[in-house]
Specification:
Helices cover 6% and strands 28% of the residues. By secondary structure, the protein is mainly beta. The termini are far apart. Strand 3 and strand 4 form a beta hairpin. The protein is built from two helices and 14 strands. It folds into two domains: 48-146 and 270-277, Thrombin, subunit H; 161-265, Thrombin, subunit H (Beta Barrel). The strands form two sheets. The chain has an eight-stranded antiparallel sheet with strand order 1-9-8-12-13-14-11-10. It has a six-stranded antiparallel beta barrel with strand order 2-3-4-7-6-5. Belongs to the peptidase S1 family. CLIP subfamily. It comes from Capitella teleta. Keywords: Disulfide bond, Hydrolase, Protease, Serine protease. One of its GO terms (molecular function) is serine-type endopeptidase activity. It holds the Pfam family Trypsin.
């Protein structure tokens, strides 16, 4: 296999150029998202879903299909939601406002990580929830797919090809989120470097084993509305995209400090246990 090429996806090919940048399909239309983000294209990231209010379709958070009936997202997205709140996910989601054909599947069950505590003192530890859908998503649709969990011991390095995606603000000074899914290539920071950068902030949070940070060069950052959305990395030695992290927290200005994700490899055992036992 030619490791300079990402495997072809039947919904949309996304080849790499010689500088290892994913090239969007020019026929798929413009988009812009994430602080410092770049255009995405419909179907390019087939595992991403939008978590929405079932009746109105209004956006809550992003998420990712890890099995055909299971979505992984950030726990803070739905923590404390009323029991009678009707929530669904839009699979193959792209444009949140368009009258598209994205299927809306109701959520049957929300399973928070048992150690999640919604407090700043936890520094974002265990900020994960698994959502069980009322019915399986249709994986025969070429624009719908699951994303693989990473190897349990894998440490994501600075040299990997990693991308963040989401519907978050494109400008922290603007009201509201982006209508269209956006993307940005990022570099993964070592935790000690991430800690050093956050040590100059007023809050001085602790970066730990459960976190993975992305580089803030070129004003790139996750922002409000990106919560729950994935960071995915391409592992050339297995020839696949894998789930690197779930967008959890960052600075209020959405720039200046690294964005912090939940490191999915740290939670492989819990995720697999839920998927098997439920």
């Amino acid at each position: 296999m030619d490791m300079t090429q990402v495997p072809h996806h039947p919904c949309l090919a996304y080849p790499l150029d010689e500088y290892h940048h994913i090239l969007p399909d020019p026929e798929c239309g413009p988009a812009h998202d994430i602080i410092g983000g770049e255009p995405s294209a419909k179907g390019k990231w087939p595992w991403v879903v939008a978590i929405v209010h079932q009746d109105t379709g209004s956006f809550i958070c992003g998420g990712s299909l890890v099995q055909k009936q299971w979505v992984l997202t950030a726990a803070h997205c739905l923590h404390g939601a009323p029991a009678d709140l009707k929530i669904a996910v839009k699979v193959a989601a792209y444009n949140l406002t368009a009258n598209d054909e994205a299927e809306r599947i109701p959520i049957e069950k929300i399973i928070e990580h048992p150690d999640y505590v919604p407090s700043q003192s936890t520094n974002g530890v265990h900020d994960l929830s698994l959502l069980k859908l009322e019915r399986p998503s249709d994986l025969s649709d070429p624009c719908i797919s699951t994303i693989d969990l990473p190897p349990i011991t894998h440490e994501f390095s600075y040299s990997l090809l990693c991308w963040i995606i989401g519907w978050g603000k494109t400008d922290p000074s603007n009201e509201g989120i982006s209508e269209i899914l956006n993307e940005r290539r990022v570099n993964v920071l070592k935790n000690d470097e991430c800690q050093t950068r956050w040590d100059v902030s007023p809050v001085k949070p602790t970066i730990n084993y459960y976190n993975v940070c992305v580089d803030e060069e070129d004003e790139t950052s996750a922002c409000y509305g990106d919560s729950g959305s994935p960071m995915q990395c391409y592992l050339p030695f297995i020839g696949k995209w894998v789930f690197g992290g779930v967008s959890s927290w960052g600075s209020g200005a959405c720039t200046q400090f690294p964005s912090v994700y939940m490191r999915v490899s740290s939670y492989n055992s819990w995720i697999r246990y839920i998927l098997i036992s439920e």
